[in-house]
Structure formats: C-alpha cells, structure tokens
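Section 3.1: Structural characterization of target chains.
Under the original work plan, the team committed to producing a structural model for every single-chain target entering the pipeline before any wet-lab resources were allocated. The record below documents one such target. The sequence was received from the expression subgroup and is listed exactly as submitted; it comprises 454 residues.
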Amino acid sequence: MSTQSTQPDPSAGAAVKAADRAHVFHSWSAQGLIDPLAVAGAEGSYFWDYDGNRYLDFSCQLVNTNIGHQHPKVVAAIQEQAARLCTIAPGFAVDVRSEAARLIAERTPGDLDKIFFTNGGAEAVENAVRMARLHTGRPKVLSAYRSYHGATAAAINLTGDPRRWPSDTASAGVVHFWAPFLYRSPFHAESEEQECRRALAHLEDTIAFEGPGTIAAIVLETVPGTAGIMVPPPGYLPGVREICDRYGIVFVLDEVMAGFGRTGRWFAAEHFGVTPDLLTFAKGVNSGYVPLGGVAISAEIAATFDRRPYPGGLTYSGHPLACASAVATINAMAEEGVVENAARIGEDVIGPGLRTLAERHPSVGEVRGLGVFWAVELVRNRATREPLVPYNAAGDANAPMAAFAAACKKAGLWPFVNMNRTHVVPPCTVTEAEVKEGLAALDEALTVADAHTV
C-alpha cells in the first residue's frame, strides 16, 4: 500500500498548476494551448492527481517506467547512493558506474561489452553516430521514415516523423528510406515475406545510389516505438546486418524504447538473432528514475579509440545516482522475473485481449506488438484502411482521436496516443488484473472512435 497521500487536495493542485503555467516551458507544445495535469503521486502501474482521480498508466509516461512507479528497491538505492557519493566526474572509476556497465554488457547481444554513458536516448544516438563516422571516415547516415531517435541535432535529423521538419537542415548527412510495414506497405507487398524482400531491395538501391563508400551507418529502431510499434518481418534485420557487413557500414540499433524488457526480452534484438555494431539505450535501463542512457559498443569500434581519443563527453556521464538506480533496476528485474512477466502478459493477456477488441470495434484496423509493447491502429474504414485522422492531424482534423483520448481518461486510463494510434505500453511489472482493467477502459473508449467510422 502506498505511503503517499492519495487524499484529494484541489487547492494544492491549483497552486502546482499556477506555478507551472507561470514558469515552466513545456516540450513539443504551444505553451498557451496546453493544460498539464497536476500529478500528486504515483505507485506501480498508477498515478493520481490532486482531485482524487487515479489513472492506470498505459503510457508508462514516455514508455520508460518499465519497472513501474516508485519501486522500493530502486528508490532505496538512490537514497543510499546519495548518502554515500552524490556525484563524481566521469574520468574517475566508481563502483556503481562499473557495476552498471557490467550488468548492461552481460545482457547486450554479442560483443557489445563497452558502455559509454549518456544522460538519455538522444545523446546516446548522437554519440553512436559520431562513433560510426569516426570509425569509418564516412559522412552519411541512413535512417528510416516512421522513426524517432531524439530531439538533439543529429538525432532529430535522423528522425522520420514530422517533429523533424522544423529542425531539418537538409545538410546533416542523413538520408531516409522506407523500412517494412506490411499494413501500410510502401512496396505494395501482400505478405511479410514479400515486404521483407522488397524492403531489403529498396535499402540496397538507396545505398547504391547514395554511394556505399559514403555511408557510415544505418540507424534503425529494432522495433519502432512512437512511430507505430511495427515489428519487423522475419529476416529483415538479419538482412540489414548482411548488407552492412558487405559494404563496411556500421549497424546501429536504437533500443532506447524497445530495450530492457519492453518486448519480453532484455533487448528486442534477441527476437531477431542480430547483433549490431552499436546499440543505444536509455528509458527502461532505470525506468527514468534518474536520467541515464548510453551506447553499447562492439570490440571493433571500441578498438578504434584505444590509441585515438574519443572526441566526446558529458559532465554527467555515468552519474553515480543514475548508475545506482540502474544497478537496482536491473537486479530487481532479474530477481522478480520482470522480463518474463512482460513476455507472458503480452502473449497471454494483451495480445488476445486486443484481438478480441478488434473483433468488436470497426475502428480497429490492426493490432500488433510484442511483450508490453503494442499498437492499435484506428481507422475510419477497415476495407480502405483510411486512418481515423489524417497524417499529422491537428485541431479539428484530430477531433476523433482527441475524443478517444478523453474517453480513456474519463474511464481512468492514461493512454499513449500518437497520430491515428493508441499504444498499449504498461509497465513490464503490470499484472493480469491491471491489463484487464485497462482493456475494459479501452473497450469503452473505442465506442467513441467507432462513431467516426464509415
């Protein structure tokens, strides 16, 4: 039972909201058009506001609280580390930093045994790209449309969704290509096998026309997250690995969202039997309790910098509080079978439950996912697959999705909504009963989406 107060206190909530509106500048927002919820506390799979409303967190905040809110072992580890050593520069050897790196390296595929720590996922991608360019001496990086890699300079240019547009310099050395997505196939494929084969051929063509000797890296989310949780077809990632090997291109897998149990494995790459040259991580490594990310580096790329200084660093790289929370998170996940729980819940509860909802609701075009990483594609017409709202819709054009999200919240469910999709991404610790509670709320909210179908 929570030790935090869950008693309504509207006046305190109003004060929090007023201070926020006076002084906080929010990301990705028109500041005068937003109305942030004032959060009073959180525990496990839930958080609550000052008015006494409790929400089942099917967004995992930003798909990062994999171990749930306020896990006591992680909170205690942060407290203990703060009492012992709050901070130290990254040039020193520190026990918790070394242990966090060891625990991560134990779980990464292949020989990704060196860990460069960052403060989050975007910085991890920035440094992975820098490493690839320095390792190869080549300028270009390829990434997919329908992707998100972060909001810093290189990461936002790699990103393949509209958030890139205001910052796209067209001079960042980034070339985009189409990755496989059978439901909305850019290759007119009729099967996963066709989609895989044609996507790989398209990638090969892109490389040929860009010049293989100019390409430093291919960067892919192992399972794209915000862009739609599109599980790649069998053979695709091994095919990309083979192409990279053939042309001397560094293969970077972005596991910032898909890693640390989210797909029912420690890393999503395990599902596909591939080992990248560089693997980026953040979010679930410590459930975001303290900012932390990093790059897991292959032996070959690490060797590039044995006698040559790596020209990159961060004041808070491997911060002791962050590393202590990562050690506690990874150990708790291992001891409590959290990754196994995510796999079981996905296979036995979320997947079947969402497929049942699809049968009941004409607004559901497709459900797809792994572990506790699922997307529900909402459509106006199942036959034509017309999205419930247009691509990058806003204002009145986005009204059907806004109404759906409002219905979720009214039912006590906090959704992760993007474009014409809702994502089902609860903590990896979620219980069967909690998932069923969330599915019941989704069932209710989908009737609102159904009203916009034709």
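The mean pLDDT is 97.
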